[in-house]
Specification:
The complex is a heterodimer of chains A (242) and B (248).
Chain A: E1 16-21, H1 28-41, E2 46-50, H2 55-66, H3 72-96, E3 100-104, H4 107-117, H5 121-127, E4 136-141, H6 144-154, H7 173-195, E5 198-201, H8 206-220, H9 228-240
Parallel strand pairs in A: 1-3, 1-4, 2-3, 4-5
Chain B: E1 29-34, H1 41-55, E2 59-63, H2 71-79, H3 85-109, E3 113-117, H4 120-129, H5 134-140, E4 149-154, H6 157-166, H7 185-207, E5 210-213, H8 218-235
Parallel strand pairs in B: 1-3, 1-4, 2-3, 4-5
Helix pairs in contact in B: 1-8, 4-7
The chains are: A alpha/beta (242), B alpha/beta (248).
């Protein structure tokens, strides 16, 4: 299977794009936050972005979920719309400005989730063909039981759509979550091989994982030159805090 | 995605299917009327629907931004001029997917004639005019049901411009002002509509549209549409469930 357009080759922007993927409870956000601190402390110009719905589609998704009228296709396309909005507003500008963009979740989230919901694998890849290829994509691989126990200790309630309740896999949230996220894990392992994601064993300690992540980020940034303008600005803010 | 002859008129998608929907039993027909602004498309669609219903065919009509899910959101976003070409195309694709699943496919399954005032070709043309990748657009809209018949109401830019001006419809989007081709509304409008016509003409070649000269009298156009529809429905032995006897 071929991936279209910009996903095929490295991008030509002066910045760097580093992204994390993984199911809920894999610890990917924690790891990305620590990487952010690391790069900021080095005085590098970093831009952090996460896949939170933009206003443009937030209200639609909310209404659709409430009425349970979202179908696998409209669910997928709404998220693609949302992603495009995020790309244009939050990812491309800092990339063009030569910054290091750290993205919590990227297109692979959609590759996994939309296929599990019933969309065609090839179609979903083509729809996201406009996205630039990341310079480094981490996949935090975690067994379902570990993720569930992390989630349940951390927050009170799983949400319907994260548990895939709309698919009618199981009558209760936790069983449904396990079945749904289990299928997502299977998709992620296919994607990891196909799209060249870097797999991190997310059962390791936070420190061990972060060491690994930082080493790989250093490698990715070997040929990176921050532009003078943005570096000066950043160092100034870092020094102000001391 | 080349168009096939009338003879094997089976339900099919443009490309990628919606895999979780059954394909069986979609005995209805999808008839599309395409054309640029000001070609008289909507008038013709209304007249055709009336006529088909008099003939005893059950008809539902559909068109862009009529989905419950995102129809209003698209209108609102266009109001605020806040759509990038990617989000523009993806929002329209969402609108179509919603109508496909809740309106078009159910109607086809019930043996209706679905009459679409504009279809994916409008978005293919608008997308290319906005510099979106041609292949990407085709892939994006490949979940659309393949129409049985596509009419293209063809108009040159020299006929189109006065019509749209007369109707007072030369607005921001129909002038392609989102593409910054110039700050003159009129110049941008002409450049944009010229590009759209060019795209429609290419699509017509590729997909084998049934071209109708839109400069004719509306009644003459309607007669042509009716003749072609009758010819098509007869050729595939289509008769709607409960169709009336139509001897007049």
């Amino acid at each position: 299977m071929t991936i279209m357009n910009s996903l095929l080759a490295p991008h030509n922007f002066p910045g760097k794009l580093i992204i994390v993927e993984g199911i809920d409870g894999s610890g990917k956000s924690t790891q990305l936050q620590l990487a952010l601190r690391y790069l900021q402390a080095k005085g590098l110009p970093v831009f952090f972005t996460e896949w939170n719905s933009a206003d443009l589609v937030k209200t639609i998704t909310k209404r659709g979920k409430k009425k349970m009228s979202l179908t696998p296709m409209t669910f997928s396309l709404l998220h693609a719309t949302d992603f495009a909005h995020r790309l244009v507003h939050n990812i491309l500008p800092p990339l063009k400005a030569g910054m290091i963009v750290l993205a919590d979740r990227y297109i692979y989230t959609a590759f996994a989730r939309d296929v599990v919901r019933g969309c065609q694998r090839d179609w979903v890849r083509r729809v996201y063909g406009f996205a630039p290829r990341p310079d480094r994509a981490f996949y935090f691989n975690v067994p379902i039981d570990v993720s569930v126990s992390r989630l349940l200790s951390g927050r009170a309630k799983l949400k319907d759509y994260e548990a895939g309740m709309d698919l009618g896999l199981a009558p209760d949230l936790i069983s449904s979550f396990k079945l749904f996220q289990g299928r997502i894990l299977d998709e992620y392992s296919k994607i990891t091989a196909e799209c060249g994601l870097t797999e991190i064993d997310a059962t390791q300690s936070i420190g061990e994982q972060q060491q690994h992540v930082r080493n790989l980020i250093d490698e990715t940034l070997e040929d990176y030159r921050a532009s003078a303008v943005s570096i000066e600005g950043r160092i100034k803010t870092v020094n102000d805090g001391i | 995605m080349a168009s096939e002859s009338h003879a094997n008129s089976q339900f099919r998608y443009m490309g990628h299917a919606m895999p979780y929907l059954p394909r069986e039993g979609c005995t209805g027909k999808l008839i599309v009327i395409e054309g640029t602004d000001g070609c008289g498309r909507s008038t013709q669609a209304v007249m055709l629907k009336d006529w088909l219903e008099v003939q005893g065919y059950a008809v539902i009509d559909t068109g862009w931004t009529r989905s419950k899910l995102v129809g209003k959101a698209i209108t609102d976003a266009k109001e605020g001029h806040s759509l990038h070409r990617l989000t523009y195309c993806l929002m329209y694709a969402t609108d179509l997917a919603d109508r496909m699943e809740y309106q078009i496919i159910p109607a086809l399954r019930s043996g209706f004639i679905v009459l679409a005032d504009r279809y994916i070709y409008t978005l293919l043309a608008r997308g290319v005019a906005r510099d979106a990748d041609k292949q990407w657009l085709r892939d994006l809209f490949s979940f659309a049901v393949h129409p049985d018949l596509v009419f293209y109401l063809q108009l040159g830019v020299e006929d189109l411009v006065p019509r749209v001006l007369e109707a007072g419809k030369m607005n921001y989007w129909e002038s392609g002002l989102d593409m910054n081709w110039g700050d003159d509304l009129y110049d941008s409008f002409v450049a944009y509509q010229t590009e759209l016509i060019q795209q429609f003409n290419e699509l017509s070649e590729e997909f084998g549209f049934h071209c109708v000269d839109a400069r004719q009298d509306p009644r003459a156009i309607q007669r042509q549409l009716r003749r072609a529809v009758t010819g098509y429905l007869d050729s595939c032995n289509y008769s709607a469930a409960g169709r009336l006897s139509t001897e007049r």
